[in-house]
C-alpha cells in the first residue's frame, strides 16, 4: 500500500465531508446544542464553586470534630459531562451521516468503477475512505472541544493541567464512540447496494445496540440472577444511606443499608446483606457483559470515569458507605479498561468486516 | 499488445467468458463485437485488472494483468460502460483526482487536464459533474481514460450516450489516437459503429470467440456455406432467354431477372452470351451475404 495513493483518497474524502451540506448542518446543530449545554454546565459549575467557597468559609469558622473535614472543590469536568448526552445522540447521527453512503453512493453513481480503473488498490480506497471519515469526525470533535474550552476561558475558568488532560482524554474517548457508529455505517454502505438501505440497516443496528441490547441485558440479568433474597422476618432498625448523583443524561442511585439491633449488628440481617450483595453483583456481571457490546454504555461508563470520578466510584461500589479514594485520571481509566477495550474492538471488528467485504466486492 | 489465453470467468456457476483466446496487435483498432450478455464487458474488466479471471490469463504489453494489475493500469486507459463521476466535483476536479494516482505534479496535471478538456470539448464548463448530461459524462469519461496518455485504450460501448455530433467527434478522436500508435480495444454490440472505426474485429457469443480478423474475413467465415458455388445476379431490359453454360448448376428467376448458381465466376462468359443475343444487361454482380445479416445470424446462434 502506497501512502501517497492512500492519502489522495483520504484527502478527497475529508474534503467531501467537511464541505457537504449534510455534515455542515448536523455539525452546526451539534455545536449549537453542545454550546448551550456547556453554558448551563458552566452556570452550574459557578454555583457549585460559590457553594464550595461558602462551605470553606464556614468550615474555617467551625471548631470541634468537623475541623478535619474539608469540602471538595468542584471540577470543571462537570461541565464536560453535559456534553456526553449530546454526543451519544447527535454525535452518533453525525457519524452515521458521514459513513452510510461512502461506498454505496459510489456504486450507485458508478464512480467506483472509474476510480478503480486507475492505479490504486482496493485496500487503499477503503482505508482512505475510513481515514477521511475519521479525519472529519476528529475535526468535528476538535471543533466542539475548542468551542468548549473557549467558553470556559470566556467565563474566566482556566483548567488545570490535569483537567486539560482529562478534557483531551474525554475528546479521544468521544471520538472512539463516534468511530463505532461510523464503522457500522461504513460496513452497511459496503454491504448494501443502495444508500437508502444502508441507512436503514445502520439505524436498525444503532437502535439495537443503544436501546434493545441494554434491555435484553437487564432481562438476561433478571433471568440469570433469579429472585432477590427475602429479608429476615424480624423487627429492624435500618440505617439507610442513600446516595444520588446525576449528570447530563445520566443518573445513578445507590442504597446502602446497615442494620443495628440492640446496639450490635444483627447476624440474620448481616447474612441478608451479604446475599443481597452477591445477588446484585451477579446481576451487574450479566448486565456489564451485555453493556460491553453497546458503544453507548461503554462510552458513558468511560466518560463518567473521566468527568465524574466520584460518581463513578459510587457506581462501582454501591454497598460501601465510604466511596473509594479518587486515584486520578490514570486510575479512573484503569478501572474501565474493559470498556475502553470494547470501544476499540467494536469499530475495529466492523472495519475489518468492511475491509473483507470491499476487497471481495463484485465490480460490474 | 493484448493477449488472452484460455481466459475464463465464472459468476455464481454461470460461465460469462469461456476459454477465450484473443490477440490484438500493437496500433490496431480492434472491435469486440457481440450481443448484450455475450461477455464483452467481463472480458474488458479482466483485461483492465478490475476483476480476476477464474481460469486462464490475459496479458497487456507482456504484463500479466492478474499478477500486476497496478502496472497494467499505469499503461492503459478505460472508459467503462455508463461511466460515473463524483457529482459534487467539476470535470476538472474529477480529472485532477484521478491524475494524482499517476504521480503527476501539479503543473503536469494542470496542463494535461486543460489539454484533455479541450480535446473532448468540455473546456470552460464550470458546472459540477452531477449536473452533466449523459453525453457530457461520456466525453469526460474519454478524458479520464486518456489522463495518463495510455498505450492501450479500452472503450466499452463508447457511443452509447452520444448524439450524432458526439459520435462524429468520437470517431475523429479514435482515428487521431490510432495515428499516435495507440492500441484501441472497442467493445460494442453495434456493428455499424465498429465497422466505421475498427480495422479488425472479434465476435463473441455466449462467452466464446466465434471469429476474429478483418470484417470481411469474419463475414466470410460466418457466412452460410454453399460449397464452392458462386451466385450471380442478372437483370436485363428484355425477357431473359434460357442460359446455357457447362459451369451453371442452377438458375432461379422470372422474366428479366435471375440468380445463377455456378461452379465458378462466369460473369464474362454470361455477359458475352447475352450481348450476342442482343439483350441489354442492366445489372450483373456476384451475390454476397450482407455483413449485418451474417452477424445477426451469428448473434442468434
Helix/strand layout:
The complex is a heterodimer of chains A (364) and B (301).
Chain A (H helix, E strand, L loop, with lengths): L2 H17 L1 H41 L15 H23 L4 H6 L1 H6 L5 H33 L6 H31 L3 H31 L12 E10 L2 E12 L2 E2 L1 H25 L3 H13 L1 H8 L11 H8 L1 H24 L4
Antiparallel strand pairs in A: 1-2, 2-3
Chain B lengths: L1 E10 L2 E11 L4 E5 L6 H8 L7 E6 L2 E2 L4 H7 E4 L11 H9 L6 H14 L14 H12 L6 E5 L7 H16 L3 E6 L2 H7 L2 E6 L2 E6 L1 H8 L7 E7 L11 E7 L2 E6 L4 H10 L4 E6 L4 H10 L1
Strand order of the biggest β-sheet of chain B: 6-7-8-3-9-10
Q: Which bin fits the share of residues in helices of chain A?
A: over 70%
SS element count, helices of chain B? 10
**Which architecture of the largest domain in chain B does the CATH hierarchy give at level 2?**
3-Layer(aba) Sandwich
Care to count the β-strands of chain A? 3
Can you identify the CATH class of the largest domain in chain B?
Alpha Beta
Could you name the CATH topology of the largest domain in chain B? Rossmann fold
Biggest chain contact:
A-B, 24 and 31 residues
What's the SSE pattern of chain A?
HHHHHHHHEEEHHHHH
Kindly, what is the distance between the CA atoms of the first and last residues of chain B, rounded to a whole number of angstroms? Answer: 30 Å
Q: Please count the helical segments of chain A.
A: 13
Low-confidence stretches of chain A: 240-263
DSSP helix fraction of chain B = 25-40%
Question: What is the H/E string of chain B?
Answer: EEEHEEHEHHHEHEHEEHEEEHEH
Q: What is the approximate shape of chain A? A: flat
Strand order of the largest sheet of chain A: 1-2-3
Which regions of chain B are unreliable across 5 or more consecutive residues at pLDDT < 50? none
Secondary-structure class of chain A: mainly alpha
Amino acid at each position: 500500500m502506497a501512502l501517497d495513493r492512500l492519502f489522495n483518497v483520504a484527502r478527497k474524502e475529508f474534503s467531501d465531508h467537511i464541505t457537504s451540506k449534510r455534515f455542515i448542518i448536523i455539525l452546526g446543530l451539534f455545536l449549537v446544542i453542545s454550546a448551550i449545554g456547556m453554558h448551563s454546565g458552566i452556570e452550574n459549575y459557578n454555583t457549585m464553586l460559590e457553594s464550595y467557597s461558602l462551605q470553606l468559609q464556614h468550615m474555617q469558622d467551625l471548631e470541634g470534630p468537623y475541623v478535619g473535614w474539608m469540602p471538595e472543590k468542584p471540577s470543571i469536568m462537570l461541565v464536560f459531562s453535559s456534553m456526553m448526552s449530546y454526543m451519544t445522540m447527535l454525535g452518533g447521527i453525525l457519524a452515521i451521516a458521514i459513513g452510510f453512503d461512502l461506498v454505496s453512493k459510489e456504486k450507485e453513481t458508478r464512480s467506483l468503477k472509474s476510480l478503480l480503473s486507475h492505479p490504486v488498490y482496493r485496500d487503499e480506497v477503503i482505508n482512505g475512505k475510513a481515514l477521511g471519515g475519521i479525519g472529519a469526525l476528529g475535526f468535528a470533535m476538535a471543533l466542539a472541544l475548542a468551542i468548549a474550552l473557549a467558553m470556559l476561558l470566556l467565563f474566566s475558568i482556566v483548567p488545570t493541567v490535569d483537567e486539560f488532560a482529562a478534557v483531551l482524554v474525554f475528546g479521544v474517548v468521544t471520538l472512539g464512540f463516534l468511530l463505532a457508529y461510523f464503522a457500522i455505517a461504513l460496513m452497511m454502505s459496503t454491504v448494501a447496494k443502495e444508500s437508502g438501505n444502508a441507512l436503514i440497516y445502520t439505524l436498525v443496528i444503532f437502535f439495537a445496540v443503544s436501546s434493545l441490547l441494554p434491555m435484553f441485558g437487564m432481562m438476561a440479568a433478571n433471568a440469570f440472577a433469579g429472585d432477590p433474597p427475602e429479608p429476615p422476618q424480624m423487627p429492624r432498625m435500618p440505617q439507610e444511606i442513600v446516595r444520588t448523583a446525576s449528570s447530563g443524561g445520566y443518573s445513578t442511585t445507590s442504597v446502602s443499608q446497615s442494620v443495628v439491633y440492640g446496639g450490635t449488628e444483627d447476624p440474620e440481617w448481616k447474612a441478608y446483606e451479604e446475599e443481597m450483595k452477591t445477588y446484585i453483583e451477579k446481576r451487574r456481571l450479566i448486565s456489564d457483559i451485555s453493556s460491553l457490546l453497546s458503544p453507548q454504555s461503554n462510552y458513558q461508563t468511560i466518560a463518567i470515569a473521566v468527568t465524574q470520578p466520584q460518581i463513578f466510584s459510587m457506581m462501582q461500589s454501591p454497598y460501601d458507605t465510604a466511596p473509594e479514594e479518587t486515584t486520578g485520571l490514570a486510575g479512573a481509566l484503569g478501572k474501565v479498561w474493559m470498556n475502553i477495550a470494547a470501544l476499540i474492538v467494536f469499530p475495529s471488528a466492523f472495519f475489518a468486516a468492511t475491509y473483507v467485504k470491499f476487497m471481495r466486492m463484485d465490480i460490474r | 499488445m493484448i493477449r488472452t489465453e484460455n481466459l475464463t470467468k465464472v459468476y455464481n456457476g454461470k460461465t460469462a467468458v469461456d476459454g477465450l483466446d484473443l490477440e490484438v496487435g500493437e496500433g490496431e483498432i480492434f472491435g469486440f463485437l457481440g450481443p448484450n450478455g455475450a461477455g464483452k464487458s467481463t472480458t474488458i474488466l479482466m483485461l483492465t485488472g478490475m476483476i480476476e479471471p477464474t481460469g486462464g490469463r490475459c496479458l497487456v504489453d507482456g504484463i500479466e494483468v492478474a499478477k500486476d494489475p497496478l502496472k497494467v493500469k499505469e499503461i492503459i486507459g478505460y472508459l467503462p460502460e455508463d461511466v460515473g463521476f463524483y457529482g459534487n466535483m467539476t470535470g476538472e476536479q474529477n480529472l485532477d483526482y484521478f491524475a494524482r494516482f499517476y504521480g503527476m505534479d501539479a503543473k503536469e496535471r494542470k496542463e494535461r487536464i486543460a489539454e484533455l478538456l479541450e480535446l473532448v470539448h468540455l473546456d470552460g464548463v464550470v458546472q459540477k459533474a452531477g449536473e452533466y448530461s449523459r453525453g457530457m459524462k461520456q466525453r469526460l469519461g474519454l478524458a479520464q481514460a486518456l489522463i495518463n496518455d495510455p498505450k492501450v485504450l479500452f472503450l466499452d460501448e463508447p457511443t452509447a450516450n452520444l448524439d450524432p455530433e458526439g459520435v462524429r467527434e468520437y470517431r475523429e478522436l479514435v482515428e487521431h489516437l490510432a495515428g499516435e500508435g495507440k492500441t484501441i480495444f472497442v467493445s460494442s454490440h453495434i456493428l455499424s459503429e465498429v465497422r466505421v472505426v475498427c480495422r479488425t474485429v472479434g465476435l463473441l457469443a455466449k462467452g466464446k470467440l466465434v471469429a476474429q480478423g478483418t470484417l470481411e474475413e469474419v463475414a466470410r467465415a460466418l457466412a452460410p456455406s454453399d460449397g464452392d458455388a458462386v451466385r450471380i445476379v442478372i437483370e436485363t431490359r428484355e425477357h431473359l432467354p434460357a442460359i446455357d453454360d457447362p459451369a451453371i448448376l442452377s438458375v432461379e428467376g422470372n422474366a428479366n431477372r435471375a440468380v445463377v448458381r455456378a461452379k465458378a465466376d462466369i460473369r464474362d462468359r454470361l455477359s458475352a452470351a447475352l450481348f450476342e443475343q442482343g439483350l441489354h444487361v442492366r445489372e450483373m454482380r456476384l451475390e454476397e451475404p450482407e455483413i449485418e445479416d451474417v452477424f445477426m445470424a451469428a448473434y442468434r446462434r
